[in-house]
Structure formats: C-alpha cells, structure tokens
Amino acid sequence: MSDIWLSTLKTTTPQEGYELAIKLSRMAVKLTQPSAEIRQKLREDYANNADSLTAVSSVVAIHFQTVAAANDHWKD
Length: 76
Ligand code: HEM
What we know:
This protein is an all-alpha fold. 68% of the residues lie in helices and 0% in strands.
C-alpha cells in the first residue's frame, strides 16, 4: 500500500474528527476486503442488521477516542 491516505490525526473540529474516525473504520474494512464487489454484496446484509449497525457504531467510537486524544479533545 503506497498511497498516503492518513497524513494527520489533527482536525479542526470534533465533527471533522468524527468523520475521520469513520474513515479509519471504513479503511480497515477496505484493506481487509479489497474486493469492491464483495463489499457491495455484504453491504445489504449489514445495512439491514441492527447488531451490525451497533457494531459499526462501536468501532467508530473507538477510533474517535484516538482522534479526540490526538487533538487534545479540541480544548481551546
Ligand atoms: C457504505 C460506514 C463496514 C460496505 C457506508 C456508509 C458509511 C459506512 C457511513 C455510507 C456512505 C455514503 O452513503 O456516503 C461503515 C463503517 C463500517 C462499515 C464505519 C465499519 C465499522 C462495512 C462493511 C462492509 C461495508 C463490513 C462490507 C464488507 C459498504 C458499502 C457501502 C457502504 C459497499 C456503499 C458504497 C459506498 O458508499 O462506498 N459504510 N461501513 N461497510 N459500506 Fe460501510
């Protein structure tokens, strides 16, 4: 993997930080399953499953903790 897709954990706002947490989560899925076709096939399942969506939320929350810490929780 040569493309740089994560150059910094610093974000201007908490909301941007949350979006970065989602990106980190999605990148893990993409790097683990490089086939867009297979991801597309599985999308239907997880998008309609409450437990899967709760798991998604949980993964994003874990990444958000890291991003928030890297930004000193956006304290002034
Ligand atoms: C779409 C997040 C796991 C496949 C999306 C979207 C979000 C998202 C926010 C909507 C994008 C949009 O409409 O603009 C996540 C997060 C995940 C996760 C945070 C894990 C923690 C997965 C998994 C798969 C998957 C496990 C399949 C293996 C897809 C596909 C789409 C999608 C195919 C629609 C196409 C696209 O927008 O790229 N996901 N997802 N995702 N997700 Fe996930």
